[in-house]
Amino acid sequence: MTTDPHASLQPIFAARFADPPTTHEDAADTDLIRSMAGRGSCRAFLDDPVPAPLIETLCATALAAPTKSDLQQRDIVLIQSSDIRQRLAELVAGQAWVADAPMIAVFCGNNRRQRLLHDWHGVPFANDHLDALFNAVGDAAIALGAFVTAAEALGLGCCPISAVRNEAAAVSELLQLPSHVFPFAGLAFGYPASAPLISMRLPLSVTCHVDRYQEAGLRDAVQTYDRARAETQPYDKQRFLATFGDDPDYGWSTDKVRQYNAPERDGFGDYIRAQGFKLD
Ligand SMILES: Cc1cc2nc3c(=O)[nH]c(=O)nc-3n(C[C@H](O)[C@H](O)[C@H](O)COP(=O)(O)O)c2cc1C
């Protein structure tokens, strides 16, 4: 289903969830919430460039998002050089649409600044374990989410690109990322060629818990979700067809287990360690 940004929240949620909220506050039915609820990733763009002042505003908005302990451990690298952009697009091979995106930014986790502060103050950095990475990952992810929310609310289309981590060392070198700075995800954005598709999500009954985590009815809910997606939003192509063959009931869970039947980015831990992080 495509979105009408002026429609009310109810049909948007109905397209997204098998168990949409039955009621919602009228006060929540704003342009921003409709944009957030009805959003979808965009991988096809008009040629129009995104004005530089708008990009700057979006960066400022993204970096205003919450940050763990006010540590501010995320940075955005805007790719303006056509040469770097071309090389970045080559490094995310297999995703041809990236090369045609009007603008690409790379959201990075940055634990380096914190370590520099320690150097400057002559105080040892003692938090040198997995937490240092985790905090920076969270900060980068939150900033990316905020950027996407703001950009989409202003009529832009966006798609994150985790594929920048496929060749993380090469991307690091290309962007001259020093130790303790790492790419979390790229973000392609621009004016969308068409309205976003509302991709169905798992029912709220299995992803939204009250007081305690629970898995009652999970398997049935996933099967029902699989069938609904296969009917209303069938996948264009099936992963690893040669290995698994054609599945007429190919749904979300089939896609996900096929995806991780093979490792992705299994060198990423080595890259992160090479960037100076300890993962214990
Ligand atoms: C951190 C992150 C990385 C992503 N990386 C890619 C990517 O490399 N290529 C791509 O086409 N989509 C990528 N996506 C987009 C997801 O595939 C998309 O959000 C998901 O399929 C749900 O679709 P929707 O955003 O349209 O609801 C990424 C999304 C996130 C949050």
Structure description:
The protein is of the alpha+beta class. It has a domain of 156 residues: NADH Oxidase (3-Layer(aba) Sandwich). Helix content is 41%, strand content 10%. The chain is built from twelve helices and four strands; from the N terminus they run αααβαβααβαβααααα. The radius of gyration is 20 Å and the shape is globular. The model has no long low-confidence stretch (mean pLDDT 95). The site of flavin mononucleotide has 11 residues, from β3.
Q: Tags for this entry?
A:
alpha+beta, binds flavin mononucleotide, 280 residues, 12 helices, four-stranded antiparallel beta sheet, NADH Oxidase
Largest sheet: 4 strands, antiparallel
In CATH, the architecture of the domain at 52-196 and 264-274 is 3-Layer(aba) Sandwich
The helix count comes to: 12
Enumerate the distinct ligands.
flavin mononucleotide
> Could you say which overall geometry the principal axes of the C-alpha atoms support?
globular
CATH superfamily of the domain at 52-196 and 264-274: NADH Oxidase
Helix-strand pattern, N to C?
HHHEHEHHEHEHHHHH
Strand content: 5-15%
Mean pLDDT: 95
Strand order of the largest sheet: 1-2-4-3
Total strands: the figure is 4
The parts where pLDDT drops under 50 for at least 5 residues are none
Head-to-tail CA distance between termini: 44 Å
What is the CATH third-level topology name of the domain at 52-196 and 264-274? NADH Oxidase
As a whole number of angstroms, the C-alpha radius of gyration is 20 Å
